[in-house]
Design a protein that fits this description.
Elements (H helix, E strand, L loop, with lengths): L5 H9 L3 H9 L14 H7 L2 H24 L4 H16 L12 H11 L1 H18 L2 H19 L3 H17 L1 H9 L8
Helix pairs in contact: 1-4, 1-5, 2-4, 3-4, 4-5, 4-6, 5-6, 5-9, 6-7, 6-9, 7-8, 8-9
Length: 194
């Protein structure tokens, strides 16, 4: 029964906003009030520099991966592991430590899903990278990966609890990108400058 404690642990770790912390350490503007107002790695790149964006990205991936990997290592049931990943993702979206004003969850979802199944994480990272290379549009890359995530989960993991958690995560991620979708439809979405 104590394994369910991994779910709130996942949420609390997910609530650590890497973007806000990194920007504060780097002396950059608060990403919630500058650039796109999204506390994520893409916005940190926009308002800061590549180094800060990379650290933000790694922090967001790690806070999704760590609680899931630990829950697995301690022998938690796959349903609890999947719920822990979903909780970490939720923590990123609605962080208790940062006024519930979080990011869109792409990197944290990648970390959580990699912790659940490394092949799933690699498939999603490969999808994002392929789309980013072809389009140079971060949001379109994330949306493509989100649409394919439940399919990858079904093929690679074959556990209903994982597929359900991944599907919820993917739907939530798409919802959080609704403004990006509108800009994509208008042909106004910004491109990644590398």
């Amino acid at each position: 029964m104590w394994f369910w404690w991994w779910v709130p642990v996942g949420y609390l770790l997910g609530s650590l906003s890497s973007a806000v912390i990194v920007c504060k350490l780097w002396g950059l503007p608060d990403p919630r009030t500058a650039g796109s107002h999204n506390p994520g790695a893409t916005n940190v790149l926009r308002i800061g520099n590549k180094q800060a964006a990379v650290v933000t990205l790694l922090g967001d991936v790690l806070k999704g991966f760590l609680p899931v990997a630990l829950a697995r290592w301690f022998g938690a049931d796959p349903a609890i592991v999947a719920a822990t990943g979903l909780a970490a993702f939720c923590g990123h979206l609605y962080p208790v430590f940062f006024g519930f004003q979080g990011g869109k969850g792409v990197a944290t979802a990648l970390g959580a899903l990699s912790g659940i199944h490394l092949g799933l994480g690699l498939a999603l990272a490969g999808t994002w990278l392929t789309m980013a290379k072809l389009t140079r549009i971060s949001s379109l890359s994330a949306l493509t990966a989100a649409v394919l995530a439940p399919i990858y989960a079904h093929w690679l993991v074959r556990l209903p609890s994982v597929t359900v958690s991944v599907t919820i995560m993917a739907g939530w991620l798409i919802f959080r990108h609704r403004d990006n979708i509108r800009r994509l439809l208008r042909g106004e979405e910004g491109r990644i400058e590398v």
